[in-house]
Amino acid sequence: MNSEIIEITLRSIYVSGTATLLSATWSLPLGLAIGLRDFYGKRFVKGVFNAFLGMPTVVLGLILFLLIRHAGPFGFLNLLFTPLAIIVGQAILITPIMVSFTTSAVESIDPEVRDLAKTLGATEIQASLAVLKEAAGGTLLAFIASFNRAITEMGVAYMVGGEILVLTTAIALQRDMANIELLLTLATILLSIVFAINLTINLIQKRRP
Question: Residue 64 burial (CB < 10 Å; 0-12/13-18/19+)?
Fold first, then answer.
C-alpha cells in the first residue's frame, strides 16, 4: 500500500471522525431535550429531522458551496476547498441522524429513571445525563450511524473539498482515470472501515452485562 493511499485513508477517518464529534456537540443536547420534554409541535420537530435523514449530499454540498464561495455571504471565512469545509459540511449532514437516533434512545428509557435521579437530589442537568447514560446503547448507535454516513458520502466532499481527496472522492477520481486496481483498493478500504467499526461495536455490546 503506497503512501498516497494511507494519506487518503487517514484523512478520511480524521475528517469524518471530527465531523461526528462536532455534530455531537449540538445534536446530543438537542436530541436529549426533544426526547425528555413534551412541548407543542414536538411531533413536527421530530418529523423535520426524520425528513432530512435522506438529504441528498450533493444538494447540501451545493448549498454550502454557494454560501462559502468567495462571492458568497461567508466567503470571507476562506473555508472553500479546505478540510474544515468538509468537516463542517459532514457535521451538518449527519445532524438529523444523530438527533433522531438520540431522541429515540432517550424516549425508550423509563421516565422513572429521571424522576428517581431528581428524588435523590440530582439537578435537572444531572438527571438528564442519567437518562443519557441509560440510553448509552442507542447513543452509541447514533455515533456509528453518523460516522458511517459521513465517511461514505461524496457530495459534500466533492463540492466543498475540491482537490482534497477522501476515500469516496478518490474512488470517483480513479474511476474517471480508469485505474481499476487502485479504485478497487480504495473501495475495499472504505468497506473494511465501515464493517470493522460495526463489528467492533457489536462485540462490545455483546460483552456488556
Answer: buried
Q: Cell 485505474, residue? A: 179
**Quick one: pLDDT band at residue 116, thresholds 50, 70, 90?**
confident
Helix (H), strand (E) at residue 152: helix 136-152
Supply the CATH number for residue 98's domain: 1.10.3720.10
Q: Give the residue ranges of DSSP H helices in 37-123.
A: 42-51, 57-68, 83-107, 111-119
Range of the domain at 10: 3-167
Angle, CA 91 vertex, CA 101 and CA 114 arms, to 5°: 35
pLDDT over 70 (residue 204): no
The answer, yes or no, to whether residue 169 has pLDDT greater than 70, is: yes
Query: Which residue type occupies 105?
Result: A
Residues 62, 66, 67, 69, CA torsion sign: positive
